[in-house]
Amino acid sequence: MQELPADALAEAETPPGIEIRPLDTVGEVFRAADVLSEVWGGDRSGMPPNLLRALAHAGNYAVGIYDEGQMVGASVAFFAAPGARSMHSHITGLLPGQRRRGLGRLLKRHQREWALARDVGHVTWTFDPLVARNAHFNLRVIGARITDYLVNQYGPMDDGVNRGDESDRLMVSWALAAPPAQTPREDRVVAAVAVPPDIEALRDADPAEAGAWRPRVREQFLAHLSDGLVVGGFDAARGYLFVRP
Predict the structure, then answer these.
(1) How would you classify residue 183: left for phi > 0, otherwise alpha for psi between -120 and 50, otherwise beta?
(2) Cβ-based neighbour number of residue 48 at 10 Å
């Protein structure tokens, strides 16, 4: 296995009682599907047990994260075209109450080690550009790079998290053996796109205001990309930071 770059993931410590392991049995697969359904507000269509079982059996990345033997999260990724040496991380979720424990970092570290051991050099995934905590994690903690803005990527979604909103997503590419991307210097930042600090709370408190953020962010993002800019980083005060490549 290749040596991993020194970064926040490599330095993350595994809390006592936490274990990440493959979904080897039908029972584990069904439990993982239940966990992911709970994370997404009761929706079972995002990762049904039969599809999850097929992906796991075919050798793709399918794991559960356990706390004292109880599954509290799951993650699923599948291989891309053979020549790409890449895989796409389709879904990762932790049960309510499991955030801020560093488990997301542990899952990504495990995913990276698993991928490198199989000669996979890149992992891609998508995330909602309005979710600031995910932008912070993906760009500042992991040091991945945004490669595209995908308008309504999955069409209408009927889960408790996305229902009633269009499914715009940012595509992320993570070069596993490369040093993490760094936040750009101030003199390189030429534009920024702000997002709310907590879109999930805003959707509950003020649905109309939350809904107004989607077209606003989409319009600004696409305009900057069409001008040849790229996302160089993210910070809580300004949002996505755009630079010239």
Answers:
(1) beta
(2) 14
**Residue 13 identity (one-letter amino acid):** E
Helix (H/G/I), strand (E/B), else coil: 36? helix
Which residues is 20 bridged to in the sheet? 65
Encoded tokens for 19: 């274990």
Largest CA distance in the chain: 54
Instruction: Place 164 in a pLDDT band, splitting at 50, 70 and 90.
Output: low
How far apart are alpha carbons 160 and 205 in whole angstroms?
Answer: 16
Q: Quick check: pTM over 0.70?
A: yes
Closest CA to 160 of 203, 190, 128: 203
The per-residue b/e assignment along 108-140, b for 16 or more CB within 10 angstroms, e otherwise, is bbbbbbbbbeeebbbbbbbbbbbbbbbbebbbb
* pLDDT tens-digit map of 89-136: 999 999 987 877 889 899 999 999 999 999 999 999 999 999 999 999
H helices of the chain, in order, are 8-11, 26-39, 49-57, 103-116, 132-135, 199-205, 207-226
Say which residues have a Cβ less than 8 Å from residue 30's Cβ, sequence separation at least 6: 49
Cα–chain-centroid distance for residue 158? 19
Confidence label for 157 from pLDDT (cuts 50, 70 and 90)? low
Assess whether pLDDT exceeds 90 at residue 61.
yes
- Which residues make Cβ contacts (< 8 Å) with residue 15, sequence separation at least 6? 101, 102
Contacts of 53 (CB under 8 A, 6+ apart): 26, 29
Q: Tokens 């993002």 — which residue?
A: 221
Q: What tokens appear for 81 in the block?
A: 């075209």
Q: What are phi and psi of 62, to 5 degrees?
A: -145, 110
pLDDT of residue 14: 81
